Each structure stands twice: as C-alpha cells, then as structure tokens.
Amino acid sequence: QLAELAACSDAEALRLRTKPPQDPALVATVRAKLASAHALEATGKFRDGVAAVAAVAPDVARAGYRPLEAEAALLEGTLQHDLDVYQRATTALERAVWAAEASGDDPVVAKALIELVKVHGTHARFAESDAAHARATAALERIGRAPELSTDLDYAVGLVATVRGDLTVAEAALTRALHTAETVHGGELRVASTLVALGKLGLRRMNDTAAPYLERALAIDEKLLGPDHPDLAAVQIALGGAAYERTDYDGAVARYERGIAILERALGHQNVQVANALNDLAGTRQWQGRTEDALAAIHEALAIDEQVLPKADPQTASHLATEAEVLEQLDRHDDALVANERALAMLRALYGEEHQDIADALHSRALIELAAGHLERALADARASLAMFARVNPAFPTMELHRTLGRVELALHDPVSALADLDAARRQLESEGDPAVHAWINGLYGRALVETHRDRAQGLALVTSAYKALHADDRAGKEAGELERWMRDQGMPVSH
Fold first, then answer.
1. So what's the pLDDT on residue 13?
2. Which pLDDT score, from 0 to 100, does residue 5 have?
3. Closest CA to 170 of 211, 128, 121
4. Is 68 in contact with 30 (CB distance < 8 Å)?
5. Three-class SS state of 377
6. pLDDT tens digits, residue range 290-322?
7. 425-434 contacts: CB < 8 A, separation 24 or more?
8. Is the dihedral of CA 437, 319, 350, 86 positive or negative?
9. What one-character DSSP code corresponds to residue 394?
10. Alpha carbon separation from 435 to 22, 69, 254, 395, 468 (Å, rounded)
11. Model confidence, pTM
12. Among 352, 381, 389, CA closest to 364
C-alpha cells in the first residue's frame, strides 16, 4: 500500500509539472499500443517490438506530448539495445532523456540513463557511460527510495565494470543488485539477469564459481520465459563457458549450439550475441582438435561484427584475438600476427595500456612468435603478459602462461628458468583437467629435469609417459611431435 501511495504521489507531482495533453484520447490510444510493444519486449520478440514502436511514431508526434515522447523513445532505445544496435539505441535513449527532463519525469530520465550506462559501457565507451551514470545517480536522488531502479543501476555498473576489467567493483555492484532484487516483489527476472552477470564474472575470473549462479538463473528463466526467449540463450551460452572451463568440450558445444539456435529464431543471424557465441564455439572447437571448423566459426563471427558493430569494439577485438589463436594452430603465423596486432591495437584504443584482455592478447602473441621461431620476442611478450595479469587480476590462473614461458626458455637453452616456470604450471594443474594439458606440462617439465641435470631418471619417465598420452590423443599431434624430436635427440627409444 505504501508503494502504491508513493506511486500516486509521484504521478500527482508529474501531473502538476506537466501540461495536460491536447488530445487525451489519442495519448491513451498510443499508450495502449506502447503497452503491447512492451509485452513484445518482455517476451523476447524484439524485432516485432521495434516495428510496433515505429508504427506508432506518427501518432506520438501528432500528440505533441513530452511524457509520451519520452516513454516511446525509452522503449525504442531499450529494444534497440536488446538487438545490440548501438547507434540507434543511444540515439533513441538520448531522445528519451531529453523529453523526460522536459516534462519533469525523473523515473523515465533514470531508466533511460541507466540503459545508456549499459549501452555505452558494454561497447567500452566509458566516458559516455560514466557521464550517464552520474546523471542517473542524480535522478535517483531526486526520486528518493526506488529499489527497482537502484537494482538496475547497480546491475548496469556491474556489467560495465566487468568490461572495464574492474572485477572487484563489478562483483560488489552485482552482489548489491542481487540482494536488492531478491527483496523486490516480482523481481525474479532481475534476479536471473544479475545471476547471469555474476556467472559471467566468474568465467572471467576462471575461478569455478560460475555454474551455481547460472544454473539458478536457468531455472528462473525456464519457469518464467519459456524455452525460446533470448535471455535463455544467454544463460545457455554462459553455461557453455562453464562446461568449457571444466574441459567438458562436447557439453560446451551443445550449450553454444542450443543458444545460437534460440538467438537465430528470435533475433536473426546478424546479431552480436550470435557472433559472441560463434567466438566461444570457435575456441572450444580448437580444443576438440577441429581447427578448420574453429576458423569457419570465427570468420562467421567477424563477418557479423563488420555488419553490426562500431569500428572499434571490445567484442570485435576479442573475436580477432580468437582468430589469431586459430590461425596459429594452423601454422599460418604471418596471418595470425596480423590478426593479433589488429586485436591489440583495438584493445589499447579502447582500454589504454593495462587490461586483462591486453594481457591475454600478449600471451597469444608470445605463442605465435614462439611458433615462428622469434624466441626473444616470445619471451618478452610472455613476461609482459604475466606481469600485467599480476597487476590487473592477481587471482587469474596463469598455468598456461607459465607453460608458455617454460617452452620459450627451453628453446632458448635456459632450462633452469624453464624448470621454475613449469613447476609453477604443474602446481596449478587440476586433477580433473584435460589429460592432454597434464601430459604436455609433465612432458615439458621432464625435459627441464633432464636438461638441468636435476633428475634425469624422473625426467625421462615423465617424458615417456607424456609422449604416450599425447600420441594417443588426436588433438595433440604437434605436442607429441615436439616431444618425439627431443626424445630422438636424446637417443631415447620412441614407441607408439
């Protein structure tokens, strides 16, 4: 009842500040049509919602009523954001802010600004996002107690902080959003969205915390939205990431493909979310040893990026980095370096010199340089990557980086340094991880034991065991071949 009284008070205050419409009947008719468009948005029919708002636009203009203009523009901007159409979303939302401010409608001002925080921030337009955040905070102060809007703002801040790489800030904001959403009547979908964001944050940290959040979100979305809503696709794709993290590659692919199918039915193929899922699929196909399929998937993602994203965008940069990794696996080192340099240039333009994605791209470049025989460059990049991870995300697991450093140091005939790095990599191995990863690190560690003269017998035993495991794994032909060449150089018998 108190909430209803507050809503009545807000509506009365707005009525006193705003001139009544010249044609109340037309305004009522348009609002009924906008309510139908809202229903389309809620059920995931975003393209139909955009068409419905466009159809009513002449009547909105004819009504000449600022609150109505603000409502229509807010809905249009929200739908365009749902479709990931950046420029149209920001243009509509700015119109919504202007019309709502002109009519003194602070709740609509706040809603539109919160959407702008997300739209700008998720595309790494941080100055614009921060400006919208400041204005949204001011609008919320004017409104007073508004738990739903406070939840939405914390959620937006968490999303943007995740993109920015401020993972501690992101976790704090999303945790606040979750706690508030859980107290709001009818806030289950807000809870689910925040759980997905926390799950994705866990994937970013690679700390095995994602799955419980995502499973809970999946249960809510399946219950309230049904099987074909785009929000359900987002949960499926994130669960694919959780499966990938625990080396369940077949399970990850199944989740990605399920999510892509939902998105293509709901939003069409030319959509950023489809491109992101294809990027994740490409990364998983690499680990399955299906590198050509991985290349096809990432090229499909990049073709979508070219059609729907701004020129410099964090998602395009991520997809270019994946392309570089796939090309390196195919021994196309020059092409891989070109893709990696494009990704790094874009990331630096978006984030400056320090960011988790930049550290990751430097590691990828180290692997490309190693494969191309540019050992000093590979060493410099791997060390720079490790140092950057220590600064921007100290909890990030660096097993693969230490393995790369060990490989480079062995190639540079520095087995003492290699032994230290490979020991660090071995200590981060998980008992249930990918057997090929275990074998490869153990084989390299065995080499280092032999070459440092620390323990030749243990080293040879590790190499022999690792070679057998890698040779039996269709995905690990390159690694098996590298160990086999070393074994022959050592005069070791090679048996398959």
1. 53
2. 38
3. 121
4. yes
5. helix
6. 999 999 999 999 999 999 998 899 999 999 999
7. 425/399, 425/400, 428/397, 428/398, 428/399, 428/402, 429/399, 432/246, 432/247, 433/247, 434/247, 434/287
8. negative
9. T
10. 73, 59, 21, 24, 12
11. 0.89
12. 381
Find out whether 435 and 398 touch, Cβ atoms under 8 Å. no
pLDDT tops 50 at residue 218: yes
Alpha carbon separation from 260 to 61, 238, 243, 246 (Å, rounded): 38, 12, 16, 21
pLDDT in tens, 257-287: 999 999 999 999 999 999 999 999 999 999 9
**pLDDT digits 0-9 by tens, 88-121:** 999 999 999 999 999 999 999 999 999 999 999 9
Q: According to the model, what pLDDT value does residue 4 have?
A: 38
pLDDT band at 340 (very low <50, low <70, confident <90, very high): very high
First-to-last alpha carbon distance for the chain, in angstroms, is 77
Could you tell me which residues come within 8 angstroms of residue 284 by beta carbon, excluding any fewer than 6 positions away? 240, 244, 249, 252, 253, 256, 294
Using CA atoms, how far apart are residues 148 and 146, in angstroms rounded to an integer? 6
Tracing tokens 């365009």 back to the chain, one arrives at 80
CA distance 108 to 96: 8
Dist. CA 235–CA 214, nearest whole Å: 6
Question: Which three-class secondary structure state does DSSP give residue 310?
Answer: coil
Q: What is the CA radius of gyration of the chain?
A: 26
Return the axis-axis angle of helices 272-287 and 230-245, rounded to nearest 10°.
Answer: 20
Measure the CA–CA gap between 386 and 378, rounded to whole angstroms: 12
